[in-house]
Recover the amino acids of this structure.
């Protein structure tokens, strides 16, 4: 089975999202959003090619609205690169 590896950037992005939601929403919303992101990335273990082709060569993107999560597949590892809000310029 494919493994999921989070880059430092992706971990930092998830932490930023958590902190933002902690300040602007209740803890239930914050936990729910974090779980949706985590679960979607974990599903890539079984379906690594399920995301749409990414904007950058050799990447794919999974959508967890309103977030876009670019990743790349290398042999038996899915590498989660970042987490962007869809309204964010990148």
């Amino acid at each position: 089975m494919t493994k999921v590896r989070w880059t430092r950037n992706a971990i930092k992005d998830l932490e930023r999202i958590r902190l933002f939601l902690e300040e602007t929403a209740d803890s239930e919303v914050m936990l729910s959003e974090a779980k949706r992101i985590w679960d979607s990335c974990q599903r890539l273990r079984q379906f690594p090619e399920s995301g749409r082709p990414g904007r950058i060569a050799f990447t794919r993107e999974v959508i967890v609205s309103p977030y876009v999560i670019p990743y790349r597949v290398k042999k038996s590892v899915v590498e989660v690169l970042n987490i962007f809000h869809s309204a964010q310029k990148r």
